[in-house]
What we know:
Elements: E1 11-14, E2 17-20, H1 24-36, H2 41-49, H3 64-71, H4 75-78, H5 88-101, H6 106-115, E3 116-118, E4 126-128, E5 133-135, H7 148-163, H8 181-195, H9 201-221, H10 226-237, H11 248-254, E6 255-260, E7 266-270, E8 275-276
Parallel strand pairs: 3-6
Antiparallel strand pairs: 1-2, 4-5, 6-7, 7-8
Helix pairs in contact: 1-5, 2-3, 5-7, 8-9
Bound molecules: zinc ion (ZN).
Amino acid sequence: MKKIRYLPFGYTIAKGEIRLQPQEAPIVQNVFKWYLEGETMQRIAERLNCQEVQYNNNTAMWTKHMIHRILVCKKYCSGEKLPVLITADIFQRACILRMGKAKVPRKELSAIRAHAVCACCSNKVYFRTSGERWECPNCGMKTDKQTTENILNAICSLLNDLSSHLERLRPPGDKNNLFSLELNRLAHEISRTFDQREIDVDHLTGLLLSRSSKQYSLLDAGAYDPLTLRLKEILEQKKSVWNMETDIAFFEQVVEKVIVERNGSVRLQLINGQLIP
Ligand SMILES: [Zn+2]
């Protein structure tokens, strides 16, 4: 019977459990290792053709497409359903290398361009593919030369950085009107306690303390701003590394504007108004 591959290359099922396949798992690790050492996908396929393990039973030869499929498979590092085969760091470095080599697909480019604004005047800027520069028709700002791959990598690393430091999320300064059901409830209870003829000092002190610690923690986490909360929720759900090739929908959910500086570097304005870096 022909074997159908449901699991990514490198895994097998034994006694009802998904495990590393002893011949295949080291190949996956080698593919990433060789790729990061500078081998092309074609060359890696050729190397693997010199040994016995095949990608599947249907074909005798390794191709660069099979290598590509391994390099883009996030499941190897996510650890969500399958045992971890490579670290997230290695996976991300391979992603960045791949994106640096590949032409950036139109879809990602247009997503970035649609959000790009001028750092000087906040008007829309346009990317001139010929000169690889951004230009602002409003104030005439022209950036230094900057490849789209670099811009893409910069955006990915800003978002990766933020995902692993959620404590940096802050609500914008002008939205400091606290709103929290819990705080509201405490405020009511405190005023009720004050209104009583005999004040229970211990109870009141407890309430006041818990209100101020609540206010503090809300301030700290920026949790009172609904957009900051939503942002935090989206970023928390996103456990794996950012990769614009597959995460364009995430980018759209999280980023409001891509602010292009004169030197060609970018900052991001998130949906809650916060600027990073
Ligand atoms: Zn401008």
